[in-house]
Amino acid sequence: MSNATETELRAGHSTLGRQVALPVLGLAFLTFLATWATTFQWIDETRTVLGMTVLTLFGVALLLMAAGVAGIGVLSRFGFLDTTPSPTAGLPVGIVFGTLWAFIGMAVSLQYIGNTIVYWGPIAFVLGAVGLLTATLPREDIGSTVPSAVLLAVLGGLIVAGVLDATWVYEAEWTGAIFPGSELIPLLVSVATLLGVWSAGKAKEGFGAQGREVGAFYIIGTVVFSMLSVLALLIWFIVKNGLDTFLTGASLTGGHLNVPFASISFPFIEVPFVTNVTGSLFVETPGVMPAVVGTLWLVFGAVLFAVPLGVGAAVFLTEYADQGRFTQVVEVATNGLWSTPSIVFGLFGLAFLVPRISGGNSIFVGQLVLGFMLLPLVLITSWESIKAVPDEYRDASAALGVSKWQTIRSVVIPAAMPGTITGVILGVGRIAGETAPLLLVFGGAPYPSKSPNVVGQFSFSTEPPFITNQALLEPASALPYQLYATITAGVFPRPEIYSNQEFGWGTALVLLLVVLGLYAIGVASRLYFRRKLHYE
Amino acid sequence: MSSNTVDTDQMDSQLTTSGETAEDIEDAWSDYQFQGEAKLSVEDLDVYYGDEQAIQSVSMNIPEESVTALIGPSGCGKSTFLRCLNRMNDRISSARVEGSVEFDGENIYGGRTNLVELRKRIGMVFQAPNPFPKSIKDNISYGPRKHGDLETGLLPSLLGRDDTAEEMDLVERCLKQAALWDEVNDRLDDNALGLSGGQQQRLCIARCLAVDPDVILMDEPASALDPIATAKIEDLIEQLAEEYTVVVVTHNMQQAARISDQTAVFLTGGELVEYDDTEKIFENPESQRVDDYITGKFG
Amino acid sequence: MLQQIPYRAGEFARDVPRRLRSYRARTDDEALLIHALGGLTTLLTFVLFFQSSKWTVIPLLGFVAVTAVGWRRQQAEVAKGLTFLTTIATVSILALIIGFLLWESKDIVEHMGLGLLTKAEEPLWGASNEGQIYSLTPMMMGTALTTLIATAIAAPLGIAGAIFISEMAPTRVREVVKPGIELMAGIPSITYGFIGLTILNQYFYAEFRTPTIGNYFAAGIMIGLMALPTVVTVSEDAISTVPESMKSGSLAMGSTEWQTTKSVTMPAALSGVSAGVLLGVGRAMGETMAATVMLSHTKGFPSPAFDVFSNYGETLTTVIAFEGGSASGLQLSALFAGGVVLFFTVMVLSIASQWVEWRMQQKLGGEK
């Protein structure tokens, strides 16, 4: 765009800068991905591509990036490119480079001079100061390209020259662990490419305010992208490793669905891993049925305990209590309960409930403890949603001569229900995956051979407490506890069918399905209710 | 995206719905001549929010160094139109703009417009005062600082490029221009959120002046203020017109009559019905609908 | 100020009889009786339960009966009383937790004194020729190390993620990423632990030759990943409460979006974002399962202190989870003391984050 009508109002950066910056950006993104692929060992670091090992290739890529970035910076400085740089790259940039150089100085001098602060201290300080000044003193186009180009070139050069290669090992003074080049180099290179991305992004927009914006966008975008990839990878690991176990003996029509109270049964999906017991010698495929049933009972009991308490307290706090000290205390207490570590709830159950209820681990205590954990979330969400009910509703109802309690029952609570339901579902998702307190108050045998039969165990007597339920007072298993038990037990009782790890992955997958299913329902219902509120 | 061609079908349908003939409309404003140069010229501007059309084929020239008022009933699209002039509508993802707006002869909806440069030269004051939660001084120096015109702090002072003195001059000049200096000169380091509504709005005007724009857009700048504060803002607008091109949206007809040199009347549906000297609009409008609106028969 | 305190106290004291009178005047005799009976039976139930009496069920049935009768005759009053009881129950749970933690850790405090928190020489844990010694110091060190590593990961990445979601991402990306991150918050910690154990620990052991399988560094990374969604969601909420008009004001002056984010949005949201980070730190500190399965449960001090690859590995949470099931006597008491340390640290973080958030609302003029 070098025609005569070019003015300041048109984006004022040259195409040459762009043409150099874009390939550098592309190369940096590719290298970034490749380094992580190498770290995850999808690419073997000793593999040769284009006659070079992967690591050497990284080095070459870094050198190319360095040349490109430095080229744009220098051309811009001497006026060959139409850019809009600020007088300086700024103090934050200087601090980043200063810290990087200080660390380099420290690591190198620790390794080659000695583990005394008298030696490495001054070196780190001097290098840090040089890094800071070289980034901040020159104009922005130099200050934000040349320092990163130097870092890229040093690292790339060392790799290409073979000083750093797969067999090189960093043996640190301060730890027993060692850092082999095959693992360390991809890491260093990926950090360096981030620098390259930043410099090239700035250069692409001709530096200045808009250059900084693009640089920040690329860095943050890359970071968020990696974060999401890691989280997606976690799920993928579980699905990949657990699916085989999960589907052992599964078929679409092999099972039977029995219609209750009628002797009809339909062919149905069969997943023996979910429907079989764990510890019996008589089943072909050991499954996690007892744990599934245990989790269901735990969640059921916790909800039964927490929802009336939480909603009741929320109603009292919004409708009856004066807004002041008391509500403030309750709010702080609720938030405190919400952030209390789960293991502390377990300790409390162990000290308070276990001796008074069952004298040992039991389902009932587990239900109560998880109920305690669920309570603050139910309270907070229903509090929020009752507060969100407009006062006009209450006034309108009162103006019709309806009493306060009738108004609460027929106007306030129904209007607050959606929010509360969503909160409960999200909370259930959290407690269904909770393990720590269960270790202390709930868990029983690692591989149970039957599911807890709570419904059939109620018995009545003339002695207090008149009603007892033996099943509720016995330990059981739940999905997260089952996974923990599998991890710590070491050997699966029937190794010919599953190894310990295979069974663990399967359990993890079932647990993940249950918990994420609950969360998905919670998030979806929140979206649904929100839409309904906004558009109706 | 943007097209400069006139969509005749649309034009026709719009005219039939408005209930007047094409000649009436044309006569009402298209041959409006004013003294001096056109700073902004808008041609066939259409704005859609999703499927809904908010501005219908508006064309008008806005003269420099004067106050142009945009009036009309609420929902007539006058604020939308104003936000097109510095492309603030880009913030709304469902908004779509067609047509052209030329600023000093250059189409700001042409490709590769530098929004930063554009908004530096066309400043804006919003309906509700929106000072930053910073000190009064920092509110004023925010713009120049972001554009690299002012540098203060540790690094610039080490490099000998410290602009603290310039900053103080700028703050004083802008606050004086916005008639706020006498009220706040002893507390420049206080948080701007502690000022009264009227002071906050004048601070926002001062903040806008600090960037030294050519055009100042004001979106009902006095609607959230009490009568005394409103009077101060109105005085200020009249003074600003000596140096700047001011475009002000208002729903208050008396205000428009008091402060503006020319007035454009928008009516429901986002059409520009009449545009002329303010005196003419208020005393002898061409269009019957404008007359009805001005005399309060509807609106 | 000081003179006002007795004045206010007097005011309050005079207020109590007035309130009582007004309560008495508003409530008819029958409702009063039901309230009294309900309160009495609740109290009795709790006292008997506390005494582990098998007669607990009697007042409980009494309470149910009173409620049932009351519900038929005085529904509004009973509903009010019940909601009041639920509020009291919530607060008392917290009070009970604090009380029991302190009570159960009394023995070890008497036995060890301040050494419980400061003793740094061997023997550190268990019965030895010096008698029974339980020192929480190595576990506090372990908790500090894992929390530091986790925060170093979760804070910058979480803030970057929050900025990306609320300020940078196009609407469509945001609609996918935000619920996605919330889903991540739902993955159970034991699952993270299992992945960490089978993949991360093995990786460090095989490639970096760590002295044992399991180290603070790997556990810290996993805990950081787990705390990440908390930081992202809370910070994102804070950033999106900054009014749009403030951002428009900045953009209309020709600042770039990034300048607006950096100089207007982030400073205004700073306290909310730091509340998010504090909550994340709290989560990381209280995180149990991932660390329990990933760490080696060897108690001691790495040397130098920042050697996060050493063979030591035990935190406050892991020692409770790992030994709580089988411990008794002084050892159990020491675990409760660990719980006290943990609980109060996290409580301080929680209260600090609430205070910070309250400050933010004040600063933005109370608008939300």
How would you portray this structure in words?
The complex is a heterotrimer of chains A (536), B (299) and C (368). Chain A contains 18 helices and 8 strands. Chain A is mainly α. Chain A folds into 2 domains: 178 residues; 247 residues, MetI-like (MetI-like fold). In chain A, the strands form 4 sheets. Chain A has a two-stranded antiparallel sheet with strand order 1-2. In chain A, helix 10 packs across helix 17. The N terminus of chain A is likely disordered. Chain B is an alpha/beta fold and 299 residues long. Chain B has a single domain, classed as P-loop containing nucleotide triphosphate hydrolases (Rossmann fold), CATH 3.40.50.300. In chain B, 39% of the residues lie in helices and 22% in strands. Chain B has a 6-stranded mixed sheet with strand order 6-7-8-3-9-10, sandwiched between helices. A 4-stranded antiparallel sheet of chain B has the order 2-1-4-5. In chain B, strand 4 and strand 5 form a beta hairpin. Chain B starts with 7 loop residues before the first helix and ends in a 5-residue tail after the last helix. Chain C has 2 domains: 101 residues, no CATH class; 233 residues, MetI-like fold, CATH 1.10.3720.10. A two-stranded antiparallel sheet of chain C has the order 1-2. Chain C is flat. Chain C starts with a helix and ends in a 5-residue tail after the last helix. The mean pLDDT of chain C is 85. Chains in contact: A-B, A-C, B-C.
CATH class of chain B: Alpha Beta
Distance between the termini of chain C: 32 Å
| Largest interface, C-beta within 8 A | A-C, 107 and 104 residues
Query: How many structural domains does the protein architecture of chain C include?
Result: 2
Determine and state the CATH class of the largest domain in chain C.
Mainly Alpha
Coarse morphology of chain B: globular
- Counting copies of identical and different chains, the oligomeric state is heterotrimer
What gross morphology of chain C would you assign?
Answer: flat
The CATH homology group name of chain B: P-loop containing nucleotide triphosphate hydrolases
Q: Which tags fit this structure?
A:
heterotrimer, B: 299 residues, alpha/beta, Rossmann fold, 4-stranded antiparallel β-sheet, 13 helices, C: 368 residues, mainly alpha, MetI-like fold, 2 domains, two-stranded antiparallel ribbon, 2 strands
